[in-house]
From TrEMBL:
Keywords: Coiled coil, Membrane, Transmembrane, Transmembrane helix. It comes from Sulfurovum xiamenensis. Residues 67-234 form a coiled coil. Residues 261-391 form the OmpA-like domain. InterPro entries: Bact_OuterMem_StrucFunc, OmpA-like, OmpA-like_sf. The keyword Coiled coil applies. This is OmpA family protein. The chain crosses the membrane at residues 20-41. Pfam families: OmpA.
Amino acid sequence: MFRNDQTNAESNFWISYADLMAGLLFVFILLIGAIVSKSVILKADLHTKEETLSKLSETLDVKEYTLTKLNKSLAESQALLAEKERLLTLRNARIAEDTIKLTEAEKQLQLQNARIAKDQLRLAENERIFKLQISEIKKLNKQLLEANAKQDMLSNKIVIVQNLLDENKNALDKTTKSLEEYEGKVVILSNELNEMKNSVKIKDEKLLTLLNAIDERKTKYDELVAKLQAQKAKIKSLTGIKLKVVAALKEALGDKIDIDKKTGSLRLASNILFGSGEATLKPEAKVELKKAFEEYIGTLVTNPSIKSHLDKIIIEGHTDSVGSYIYNLNLSQKRALAVMEYLLTLEFTKKHNIQPLMIASGRAYQDAIMVDGVEDKEASRRIEIKFRLKNEDAMHEIEKVLDAQ
């Protein structure tokens, strides 16, 4: 019985051991399963992250490509901006040069105005002195009238005394003493009268001297007025040079070339010279441009009375108001420069040494042609060749001042 109990105890031990080992194996299997599951989950998560990373990499490549294009576009924009700044700098330099010339003309005008003002002050001073001298003459005339009145009064008294003497001859002896006293008074009065006559004579001499001085000053005043009139006529003749040049152009060219009646500028339509939006001269337009330029400028440079007054020959480009101002300014400048470059290649230009006189300028649509308040776009698109005379602006200002006076 004891042996059976021992056998049962061993059997229970091994059963418990087997259960324990089975439990441990189950736990190990669960642990392996958990590790495998975790590994699968991590691998799936890693695969997802790799796909996300791949997509991010592709997105980054796209953004880098876009950034490269933007950098290239920015570089082109910066180059264009630098070119515009260079053109603007050139234009500002030309404006500064024109400003300096205008300042010099204004200085000359100010000097001329100062001289005229000085002459006017002298004239006013002469008029004031003249008025003072006239006032002194009036005072002297008044004193002379008073002296004459006193003289007449004394003469009347003498006549009265003589009448009394004639009437009182019989009483002469009785009144001898009184007569002597009276004769003394008459002598005194005669002396006073003589002194008064001498004074009047001196005043007459002074009055004559004063009148001579007034005549002399009046002569100088007339000479000054004549001189001012001569200067005014001379300045008027100078300011009329532009009209003479325009008249000479009309007479020489007749109906061959259409020029502006007021300014004398030559206008050429842009659509004849250039294609739409282009700044390259059409080959077929060069012949007409050469002919018009040589006839127009030839009239100026072959006339000695005109050439000596020439200051600049200006090539101006003009556009209509379609598009931005910067675009039109750039286009008008390029067209004016293209025309100038072609004209400088002509043998006519070299022969008459016209290059130092020529300048090119773009005006965009600042001088658009208006008809009844509406822009004529076709007429506004043009090239103008015009001339400027020496001191032309100053002469216009002086003419305005003279006309105002």
